[in-house]
Design a protein that fits this description.
The structure holds two protein chains of two kinds. By secondary structure, chain A is mostly helical. Chain A is 70% helix and 0% strand. Chain A contains 17 helices and no strands. By secondary structure, chain B is an all-alpha fold. Chain B has 14 helices and two strands; from the N terminus they run H-H-E-E-H-H-H-H-H-H-H-H-H-H-H-H. In chain B, a hairpin with a 7-residue loop joins strand 1 and strand 2 (46-47). In chain B, helix 4 packs parallel to helix 8 and helix 4 runs antiparallel to helix 11 (207-222). The relative contact order of chain B is 0.13. Classes of the chains: A mainly alpha, B mainly alpha. At the A-B interface, helix 1, helix 3, helix 6, helix 7 and helix 8 of A face helix 1, helix 2, helix 4, helix 5 and helix 6 of B.
Chain lengths: 298, 290
């Protein structure tokens, strides 16, 4: 499959301007494309739970415990949020998650770019074996690693620290693979020219290659951000001190105690989802384009 | 000179490689060692030989966990493929509101499994949930959903599809846009109906994506954990106990590290076999997916 990186999905829609084929008569009589009949209900069905999450977070307990349940609140209240701030360490958890994701993204960008470039362009002993071993680890599932990693963390004193949530996210075989594939797709003439002019390998990567690699770096950022922010397994097995919870672990455990305190739980859900949701809506075009890029290149 | 080049190369590739291998190859070998020991994490471990593996053959709880995982996979994978293809085809049209539709269908993918699970507890709550609210509106009998041992697994399927179908949609959408437009036009000129064009031109073109998506979704489905943890915790009556949840339960609730490792290893072997099988099969029918 050809690498086409910066294609926004919408550009293709404009490109496909295939006129609707004439089609059977019933179809021509519809004032709109029949695809709306599929897409409109589906889109609403997909948004409905999220809408309910946001609405319920602003509802009073009275409205929430009414039977039959109401979808739209009669009065808006911040009661759920104030309770959440009072009774949980949500701010602490959000800060922890921000630290985890920031470190994860930065470390991924540095380590995976370096390794990806090394495997793509430099020749050295053990390159093939190293890369093969690295890629084969993609097959190893998390549940196999849970127990020994937990023990390893215990041995080096990482249990019950934020480090336990960070360390598994410092680099990944997927990231190295993604960057290598991207670097291989670049023409090497430019790099050769820089090298002849006396540029070091690192200089070539830093000055020539990385500025061209923005789409791949964006993809890597998106995946690392999604993965590290939403991760539940590693914090769950390694962290039991509430002060070191990530926001996902905090919510999951908070729920156990507050099984039906819906305005509280939904406020927490909004707080945990909003950062990624806002980032997604702001960078949507790029986000979907990079998703499709990486989905296919695996 | 050669040594220098090797040093430069490893200076680039080394940190990530050492890190990834240290956190994957090394622990996975250790997990194998553990699977042949009996260990509770505190007292010294004792050799178990293959007894942990023998034990899992007739563990009724594991058997039901395997059944649930397979049922879940058998529903989740085909539906997410078919639905993904259908929605991607629809979203590949130059119609009004298309940006809105795309956003709506992809947004749930951004929500974490934890948030999705907590939200699902509310949406499917028998008393207060909007799911039963809608059923009542349609004059249908309300359901127990996650609180019924017959419906819980199916409800989890529904929730997973809600969250994950955006992924198959996006990769199908990208692949649809890669199909050369002149092929589609040529077929239309030859008088092929849109349905025939779809079936005979688009679907074969999408075969590599379908293989990739099936493998990916199968692996996702076999590893179902987060959602179970935040909704049913394996209940009611063990009806949503999945293999990974069982590994977690054995290891971190009962501290049966050896036995849990053996179960994890068997699941790993099974996943590996499926993946290799699919890849070999797709090679044989000449679909280059990997």
């Amino acid at each position: 499959m050809a690498l086409s990186l910066q294609r926004s999905t919408d550009a293709a829609v404009d490109g496909v301007t295939a006129k609707q084929p004439a089609g059977p008569r019933w179809r021509r009589r519809l004032p709109f494309s029949p695809w709306h009949l599929l897409l409109m209900p589906t889109a609403l069905l997909f948004l409905l739970p999220l809408a309910q999450m946001i609405l319920a977070s602003f509802m009073s307990d009275q409205d929430l415990n009414r039977f039959p349940p109401r979808f739209f609140p009669r009065t808006l209240t911040l009661h759920g949020y104030t309770q959440l701030f009072d009774q949980s360490s949500i701010v602490r958890w959000l800060i922890n998650s921000t630290i985890v994701s920031t470190v994860a993204v930065l470390s991924h960008l540095v380590l995976c770019s370096l390794a990806g470039y090394g495997f793509a362009r430099l020749s050295f002993r053990g390159r093939t074996v190293g890369f093969f071993l690295m890629v084969s680890t993609i097959m190893i599932p998390t549940q196999l690693l849970m127990i020994p990693t937990f023990i390893m963390f215990a041995k080096v004193g990482l249990i019950d620290t934020l480090g336990a949530a960070i360390v598994p996210w410092l680099a990944s075989a997927f990231g190295v693979f993604l960057m290598r594939q991207f670097f291989l797709s670049l023409p090497s003439e430019l790099e050769d020219a820089a090298r002849i002019d006396g540029c070091s390998s690192f200089g070539v990567l830093w000055r020539i290659v990385l500025p061209l690699a923005k789409p791949a770096l964006a993809t890597l950022t998106v995946f690392t951000l999604l993965g590290s922010w939403n991760d539940l397994v590693w914090p769950l097995i390694a962290i039991s001190n509430e002060d070191h919870y990530t926001v996902q672990l905090g919510l999951a455990n908070f729920q156990g105690a507050r099984r039906t305190d819906w305005s509280l739980l939904m406020s927490g859900n909004v707080m945990a989802t909003a950062p990624l949701l806002i980032a997604f809506l702001l960078a949507q075009r790029h986000f979907v384009a990079t998703m499709s890029f990486s989905g296919l290149k695996s | 000179m050669r040594l220098r080049r090797s040093l430069t190369g490893w200076a680039f590739a080394g940190p990530a490689t050492v890190f990834v291998l240290a956190l994957s190859i090394f622990p996975s070998l250790w997990a194998f060692y553990l699977s042949r020991r009996n260990w509770d994490g505190i007292s010294p471990s004792t050799s178990a030989g293959w007894s942990n593996y023998q034990r899992l053959v007739d563990d009724p709880q594991l058997r039901s966990a395997v059944t649930h995982t397979l049922v879940f996979t058998a529903i989740f994978v085909p539906v997410s493929i078919v639905l993904g293809l259908l929605l991607a085809t629809a979203l590949n049209r130059p119609i009004r509101f298309i940006a809105f539709y795309r956003t709506a269908i992809f947004v749930p993918f951004v929500a974490s499994a934890a948030a999705t699970g907590i939200l699902a507890n509310y949406v499917f709550s028998p008393q207060f949930g909007i799911a039963n609210g809608m059923l009542r509106g349609l004059h249908l009998p309300p359901q127990q959903f996650l609180e019924s041992d017959h419906q819980a697994l199916l409800t989890l399927c529904l929730i997973s599809l809600w969250g994950e179908v955006g992924f198959t949609v996006v990769i199908y959408l990208a692949a649809l846009q890669d199909i050369p437009q002149n092929l589609v036009e040529a077929a239309a000129i030859d008088g092929a109906s849109p349905l025939r064009t779809f079936w005979h031109i688009k679907v074969p073109h999408l075969a590599p994506v379908t293989v990739f998506a099936s493998v990916w979704q199968t692996i996702t489905a076999l590893q179902l954990f987060d959602l179970v943890y935040t909704t049913t915790k394996g209940g009611p009556l063990g009806a949503t106990q999945t293999v990974v949840y069982y590994v977690y339960y054995q290891a971190f609730q009962l501290t049966h590290y050896g036995y849990a490792s053996a179960v994890a290893y068997i699941l790993f072997g099974f996943t590996l076999l499926i993946t290799i099988g699919v890849v070999l099969y797709s090679r044989r029918v000449q679909v280059e997916a990997f």
